[in-house]
Amino acid sequence: MIGDVTIIRPLLDFTRREIQEYAIQHQQPWIEDPSNSDPKYRRTFYRNFINNCEHPEILISRLSSTALHMQRSLSCILHYVQSALDSCLEFTPFGYVVIKHDVFRNLQDEIASRLFLLLIMTIGNKSLKPRFSKFSSALSKVRSTASFVSFTLHGCMILKTRDGNIIVAREVSSIVPKTYLHGETRLLWDSRFELHIEFSDCFDTSLPSTSEISEKQESTCGRVTERKAASAMQVCISPLDSNPIPEHLRGINKYVVQGLPVLICGDKVLAYPLQKHNINGVPVVSIERVLLKERMMNLICNQLDQ
């Protein structure tokens, strides 16, 4: 499975000759892809190598059998990865994950490697794997008992806590700086949070239209200044980043807090998450759901389906 698309390869166990004979027998037209004979593709090299072997059918059968065994092995590995996910990882309501170091470093190497890889891809919101050299170095640091300086990897910030556990958080600089609102009350933000937003009618939550932008360009200097002032009142969701940290969030790791969503109007923070509001008309941004565990489980399922 790639994304939401399920890929099915029902003919992998059949040779080209068998498929051609079947097509002829059932009077089906045979279409030859010209790229199949183009030597610039690696698959052409492998295909020619197999065809030039003394017994290509035997080689194909063995390759197919090997692929089946590898798929079974992967299923077994991912089963243990899924079990380790519950015992090694703590998914927090703040959109980061704690690796329980004592448990993680005692995992079998392949299980630990895959668990860490899937975690990095989930929090970093990446569909591709990081470079092997960087990933291998990061994994060694995380599994070691030695202390290390915080570092980034593949859209993640990795920190070691005083109790020896590992925090894997979203790299703040990788988060989209501003997500403008169009009147939504629910929003999927940074692929980590499902947010619920409430705001009063005095705030403009719409982006300027194309005509407004054109008018801005064609108007006089005085009008441009006026339009910019109106634009500054648009409400958006941004990471807290360098804005002041409120009292109710100061007990959380500072870097983690900087990656939390806040409601902003211009350069002013209107609302923080996890904050109780008792004043009518004051905007609210609430974290309804943290999606990290669900997305990581989906990654595991996708690997099983490939």
Automatic annotation (TrEMBL):
<dbReference type="GO" id="GO:0005524">
    <property type="term" value="F:ATP binding"/>
</dbReference>
<dbReference type="InterPro" id="IPR014729">
    <property type="entry name" value="Rossmann-like_a/b/a_fold"/>
</dbReference>
<dbReference type="InterPro" id="IPR011063">
    <property type="entry name" value="TilS/TtcA_N"/>
</dbReference>
<dbReference type="InterPro" id="IPR012094">
    <property type="entry name" value="tRNA_Ile_lys_synt"/>
</dbReference>
<dbReference type="GO" id="GO:0016879">
    <property type="term" value="F:ligase activity, forming carbon-nitrogen bonds"/>
</dbReference>
<keyword id="KW-0819">tRNA processing</keyword>
<keyword id="KW-0067">ATP-binding</keyword>
<keyword id="KW-0436">Ligase</keyword>
<protein>
    <submittedName>
        <fullName>PP-loop family protein</fullName>
    </submittedName>
</protein>
<keyword id="KW-0547">Nucleotide-binding</keyword>
<dbReference type="Pfam" id="PF01171">
    <property type="entry name" value="ATP_bind_3"/>
</dbReference>
<dbReference type="GO" id="GO:0008033">
    <property type="term" value="P:tRNA processing"/>
</dbReference>
<feature type="domain" description="tRNA(Ile)-lysidine/2-thiocytidine synthase N-terminal">
    <location>
        <begin position="3"/>
        <end position="48"/>
    </location>
</feature>
